[in-house]
Amino acid sequence: ELPDGVTRPTVAQFKQLVVSALRELHGEVGAALPVDVLTYEEKTLSAILRVISSGFVKLWSALTLLGFYQNRRCAFRVLQTSPFLLALAGNSRELVLD
Amino acid sequence: NTAVSRRYVLCEVVSEDPRCRQCIEDRAVGLAVRDAIGRVHGDYGLACCSISFTVKYLNAYTGTVLLRCRKDSYRLLCSALPFVRQLESRNQRYPCALNTLHVGGTIRTCQKFLIQYNRRQLLVLLQNCTNEEERQCVQKSLSSCSLTEEQSQSGDEEDDGSTE
């Protein structure tokens, strides 16, 4: 989430943001974690990230604690996590039971 | 068992520049180590290791440094030590490296290790002696060093004299 008026990051800038969040919280070791941006939608600023499971906690904690993008406040909201990509196709949080 | 468990990491400062010795003091070494932990492991790693972190002992003549940290974070500390590149003190900085010699649970085990290590190092120095005077100096030190039952600083036992 970004405030209004900030130019939306491109996918490369988005990845750079994720890596720099890791670097701040977990140092060079964190920044070296292989993180892949599988999908990225500039319009909604949403993405699917992939990381090795041993780096999961480092990634999520780094995203949670990232507060700034280009000197403007920002926040990462993790909507869903799963070991399987296919599971991300349906979000059980938004499931409406009849 | 609520006692805090700590690890003591024994290392030596290695530098090609002999002026680096004047930077071997607790504040400079402590800052250099914490800076390296911050770079390698980030804010989280630095905060983790900083609990109970201190420079417990150092010997500028031999370059020996004893660091203390919590048992839970000694791995973060040890993995960051190779990334210490320089020591800075009084606006002077000199390049150096830290060799890890021993990790122990108590100061005593590190002390015992250091005494044996220093004894072996003296033997190496003896082999490398270039003149008779140095040879006699080192031999005298070797024959006078021993592990006595009472607590004694291992740094004081061996007196290297003129050898470098």
Automatic annotation (TrEMBL), chain A:
It comes from the Eukaryota. InterPro entries: Pop5/Rpp14/Rnp2-like, Rnp2-like_sf. GO terms for biological process: tRNA 5'-leader removal. Coiled coil: none annotated. GO terms for molecular function: ribonuclease P RNA binding. This is RPP14 protein. The keyword Manganese does not apply. It holds the Pfam family RNase_P_Rpp14. Signal peptide: none annotated. Keywords: Membrane, Transmembrane, Transmembrane helix, tRNA processing. SUPFAM superfamilies: Rnp2-like. It comes from Indicator maculatus (spotted honeyguide). GO terms for cellular component: multimeric ribonuclease P complex; nucleolus. The chain crosses the membrane at residues 47-69. Gene3D superfamilies: Ribonuclease P, Pop5 subunit. Belongs to the eukaryotic/archaeal RNase P protein component 2 family.
TrEMBL record, chain B:
One of its GO terms (molecular function) is ribonuclease P RNA binding. One of its GO terms (cellular component) is nucleolus. Residues 155-164 have a biased composition (Acidic residues). Residues 142-164 are annotated as: Disordered. SUPFAM superfamilies: Rnp2-like. Keywords: Nucleus, rRNA processing, tRNA processing. Its main location: nucleus. It comes from the Eukaryota. It is found in: Nucleus, Nucleolus. It holds the Pfam family RNase_P_Rpp14. One of its GO terms (biological process) is tRNA 5'-leader removal. Component of ribonuclease P, a protein complex that generates mature tRNA molecules by cleaving their 5'-ends. Also a component of the MRP ribonuclease complex, which cleaves pre-rRNA sequences. Belongs to the eukaryotic/archaeal RNase P protein component 2 family. Component of nuclear RNase P and RNase MRP ribonucleoproteins. RNase P consists of a catalytic RNA moiety and 10 different protein chains; POP1, POP4, POP5, POP7, RPP14, RPP21, RPP25, RPP30, RPP38 and RPP40. Within the RNase P complex, POP1, POP7 and RPP25 form the 'finger' subcomplex, POP5, RPP14, RPP40 and homodimeric RPP30 form the 'palm' subcomplex, and RPP21, POP4 and RPP38 form the 'wrist' subcomplex. All subunits of the RNase P complex interact with the catalytic RNA. Several subunits of RNase P are also part of the RNase MRP complex. PANTHER family: POP5 HOMOLOG, RIBONUCLEASE P_MRP SUBUNIT. This is Ribonuclease P/MRP protein subunit POP5. It comes from Indicator maculatus (spotted honeyguide).
